[in-house]
Amino acid sequence: MSSYRQLFYHIVFHTKGAEKTIDDVHCKELYNYIWGIVKNKNSKLYQINGIEDHIHMLVDIHPTIPVSDFVRDVKSYSSGWMKQSGNFLKFKGWADGYGVFSVSFIEKDMIIGYIKKQKEHHKSFSFEEEYRKLLLEQGITIDEKYFLK
């Protein structure tokens, strides 16, 4: 008997203090590095993009990996690589928290398009405004004590 699954996650995480420390010149290298982490976890990265202070990913995480472990590892490995690379001199690390939202197959292409247009999208509003909107759309109550920490 076969098992079937479809587990898409829209993951968002930001730099410490939401500081603008991911420059445009080297962001593609970072995205490729993260793609390698995802691949090594037997998971699939459908889209990754962001701006100077945060990253969005749409991934299908292998069902044996808890989402929290997956995000922790992506952030930990990429942070170490960024600090060693010498290309992200202002980068101090990723913030402790993250956002993760389940995505249905029907929404997949819409989320991919949304992630692809991050630079264009953020000409109109900040990461903080975007993140607040995402959380509220998902019915999540924001605890201001921890927001963007």
Brief digest:
By secondary structure, this protein is an alpha+beta fold. It has five helices and four strands, in the order βαββαβααα.
Task: Please describe what this structure looks like.
A 4-stranded antiparallel β-sheet has the order 2-3-1-4, sandwiched between helices. The mean pLDDT is 93. It is of the alpha+beta class and 149 residues long. Strand 2 and strand 3 (54-60) form a beta hairpin. The protein is built from 5 helices and 4 strands. The protein starts with 7 loop residues before the first strand and ends in a 12-residue tail after the last helix. Helix 1 (27-40) packs across helix 2 (67-85).
Topology, pairings included?
Elements: E1 8-14, H1 27-40, E2 44-51, E3 54-60, H2 67-85, E4 99-103, H3 108-116, H4 118-121, H5 127-137
Antiparallel strand pairs: 1-3, 1-4, 2-3
Helix pairs in contact: 1-2
Radius of gyration: 15 Å
Helix count, DSSP H or I runs of 4 or more residues: 5
Strand content: 15-25%
Task: Spell out the helices and strands N to C.
Answer: EHEEHEHHH
Taking pLDDT < 50 over at least 5 consecutive residues as the criterion, the unreliable ranges are none
* Content-based structural category: alpha+beta
Largest sheet: 4 strands, antiparallel
Strands side by side in the biggest sheet: 2-3-1-4
Number of strands: 4
Distance between the termini: 46 Å
What is the mean predicted local confidence, pLDDT?
93
Shape: globular
Oligomer: single chain
